[in-house]
Design a protein that fits this description.
Blueprint (H helix, E strand, L loop, with lengths): L20 E5 L4 E5 L6 E3 L2 H17 L2 E4 L3 E5 L5 E5 L4 H40 L5 H5 L1 H11 L1 E5 L7 E4 H4 L3 E4 L6 E7 L2 E6 H15 L6 H14 L2 H8 L20 H45 L4 H7 L20
Parallel strand pairs: 1-6
Antiparallel strand pairs: 1-2, 2-3, 4-5, 5-6, 7-8, 9-10, 10-11
Helix pairs in contact: 2-7, 6-9, 7-8, 7-9, 8-9
């Protein structure tokens, strides 16, 4: 143990209620308590870590993962415990779980609101007709009234860095385009406001696209569609690579053959685009913390390997690798073994 000051307590890991930030490596059976004051990693005694490591792995998989790199995953439990997972990321599992609920709720809400709107508007029309207020021509145009109301609403407000506010309605959103950025890195987004079309790049493009996509995906999607969207990101290899790939090529054309229109994408592609934008925003927000965690882990692992080997008989580490049981869970391999995308 490096730290002489209290490391805090948690009520999440019953088998190890010490610390507010725990780092663990299921493949090697390591468990550290990370001091929030000095950020040093304190290796726990061998006899206290096995059950706790299993609990950490299980809870990590059930917690909304915020961000991950090739070696480190970071999750924050609602009760305040932070878990740092050493090992390959679990993207296919957590992405489908994380976004499945969100898009599913949107889908149910859209159906519910649509049915309620039709019922309310239908009641007004029928009541008016019964009172002799509405003519047959008005009744025949009732669907147009609903469309006019939907098209008149401001759905997104964008605030460019040079000042002002851009208010976008449904028709404006349909003019959103993605193309490769001029510097060849990432993408740029075209915003259409009435007859004016403006391109934005860099952080501004990401911010605007991140605000627009939830509105374009307002109908959400079912479980299968979400799985398909996750699969698209997995095929690309990384959210950033998906964002680059989706903007490339002569695809998603309008009637004039102009490419890059988001509304011409298939539903899974638009859902995957929103996922990728969201995960990239979180990754960039926390990438500094992750970089520090990865450096700290590398130093702590060197010390842990020396400490554990001093206490174990020769050949014990190989025995643990071969007979680790539940510690080496499906989809996670010890570091040093080859592994493709999860």
């Amino acid at each position: 143990m490096f730290c002489q000051k209290p490391l805090g307590a948690n009520e999440v890991i019953e088998s190890f209620p010490v610390g507010r930030r725990l780092a663990f490596d299921s493949a090697r059976g390591r468990l550290w308590v990370v001091c929030r004051k000095c950020e040093r990693w304190n290796l726990t005694p061998l006899e206290e870590r096995w059950e706790a490591v299993e609990d950490c792995e299980r809870i990590f998989r059930d917690t909304r993962i915020r961000v991950s790199t090739e070696n480190i995953g970071l999750a924050r439990h609602p009760e305040g415990l932070t878990l740092v997972r050493v090992g390959a990321p679990l993207r296919p599992e957590f992405a489908a779980w994380r976004y499945g609920d969100q898009f599913g709720r949107r889908q149910r809400r859209a159906v519910l609101y649509g049915a309620a709107g039709i019922a309310v508007f239908g009641g007004i029309v029928i009541g008016g007709a019964a009172a002799g207020i509405l003519s047959g021509a008005v009744l025949s145009q009732s669907g147009n009234f609903v469309n006019l109301w939907m098209n008149a609403r401001t759905l997104v407000k964008l605030r460019p860095e040079d000042g002002g506010v851009i208010k976008l309605k449904r028709q404006d959103l349909l003019g959103t385009r993605l193309r490769p950025s001029d510097d060849g890195e990432g993408f740029k987004v075209q915003i259409r406001k009435r007859r004016k079309k403006v391109w934005y790049e860099g952080a501004e493009a990401r911010r605007f696209a991140g605000a627009i996509l939830p509105k374009m995906n307002s109908m959400g999607g079912g479980k299968e569609m979400v799985q398909n969207a996750v699969g698209l990101i997995e095929t690309a290899g990384h959210p950033e690579e998906y964002l680059t790939a989706i903007a490339e090529g002569d695809r998603f054309n309008d009637m004039k053959g102009v490419p890059g229109y988001v509304n011409k994408m298939e539903k899974p592609q638009k859902l995957a685009l929103e996922m990728a934008l969201h995960e990239e925003q979180e990754r960039r927000a926390l990438e500094g913390e992750l970089w520090l965690l990865e450096r700290a882990w590398e130093e702590a692992e060197e010390i842990a390997e020396i400490s554990d080997n001093l206490l174990l008989p020769e050949g014990a580490e190989e025995f643990v690798r071969e007979h680790g049981g539940g510690l080496e869970l499906e989809g996670h391999r010890p570091a040093g073994k080859s592994q493709g995308m999860p």
